[in-house]
Amino acid sequence: MKEERKKMSKQEQLQNLLGKLRAALPELREIIVASADGLPIAQLGESEIATRLAAMAATAHGLGKRIATTTHLGDLMEIVVRGNQAYFIAYAIGDKGILGLTTPAGSNLGLVRLEAQEYAKRLAELL
Amino acid sequence: MEPLKVIVTGPVGAGKSTLIRTLSETEVVDTDAAATEAIGKATTTVALDHGTLHLDGHLLHLFGTPGQERFDFMWEILSQGALGILLLVRADRPDKLPAARNILDFVRSRAPVPYVVGVTHLDRPKVWRPEEVALFFGTPLEQVVGFDPRDPAEAARPLARLLELIGT
Ligand SMILES: Nc1nc2c(ncn2[C@@H]2O[C@H](COP(=O)(O)OP(=O)(O)OP(=O)(O)O)[C@@H](O)[C@H]2O)c(=O)[nH]1
Ligand SMILES: [Mg+2]
């Protein structure tokens, strides 16, 4: 079992982690991992929007960090874009990248937050 | 004093962020992130640069764009309300001129306002002279300014030219 784990490529391990996150929060639609400079690293969901979402997640996160420093908010914890039908939420994966999610308006945001932060930590170890 | 919005755009590494850092009189908003591709430098802009500058009796608000095409939505957002466009290109990278033209066309289709082409990296070997860059863009030579965005003594030159063209 351990041997098998080792043989999994980084991409497979990433995909595997995203699959577990989706299993923990089945209502999630898009799940993407992007580098801080906006390149897609891994994704679950519609592939056409994933590439664009990766760039936008990096933009939102880069700008969010500057808003946080300019207005003395402390360290940036999350970015939330709230539409009337769904949310886009992004978390830093250490300084290695960004985890971006979309989830419907009725979602339990507290739970999404907890799980997403936990998975961001695991992703940071992997990247 | 009416602030005048200028968009500073152009391909990766042309010197957009450098220019705004050199010129701004207010604390610069910069949003560079570590580059994961080989782009010839450590960081790249992912959202925008912002700085302000008093020049020839005007207050300029400089909005720098990302250069990478995947951030083209920022070209669109930052074009809104721009009264002038400064397009930066590297004299030593003529291979990037088509990308620069693409950005210029994109921005001008959203903001049909005067523009200046700023030619950077003229100190490097094997460069295209401003006259050649002007020919490439089909732009009158007086709208093309060679300069070094790292040098505080020169960095405002293309903007001074842009102000003349805007004619305010
Ligand atoms: N030799 C030389 N170097 C220059 C000149 N102008 C700018 N540079 C350097 O070229 C690099 C330009 O980097 P940036 O200012 O980050 O470029 P940018 O246009 O903001 O790039 P992106 O945000 O990635 O699209 C910096 O390392 C500058 O120091 C020049 O005229 N000559
Ligand atoms: Mg830049």
Strand order within the widest beta sheet of chain B: 2-3-4-1-5-6-7
Largest interface: A-B, 20 and 20 residues
SS class of chain B: alpha/beta
Main sheet characteristics of chain B? 7 strands, mixed
- Count of DSSP E strands of chain B? 7
Instruction: Enter the CATH topology name of chain B.
Output: Rossmann fold
Structural class of chain A: alpha+beta
Order of strands, widest sheet of chain A: 2-1-5-4-3
How many structural domains are formed by the residues of chain B? 1
Enumerate the spans of chain A where pLDDT stays under 50 for 5 or more consecutive residues.
none
Model description:
The complex is a heterodimer of chains A (127) and B (168). Chain A has one domain: Dynein light chain 2a, cytoplasmic (Beta-Lactamase, 2-Layer Sandwich), CATH 3.30.450. Chain A is built from four helices and five strands; from the N terminus they run ααββαβββα. A five-stranded antiparallel β-sheet of chain A has the order 2-1-5-4-3, with helices on both faces. Chain A is globular and about 45 Å long. The two termini of chain A are 22 Å apart. Chain B is an alpha/beta fold. Chain B has one domain: 3-Layer(aba) Sandwich (Rossmann fold), CATH 3.40.50. The longest helix of chain B has 14 residues. Chain B is globular, with a radius of gyration of 14 Å. The model of chain B has no long low-confidence stretch (mean pLDDT 97). Chains A and B meet through α3 of A and β2 and β3 of B. The site of magnesium ion has 4 residues of chain B, from α1.
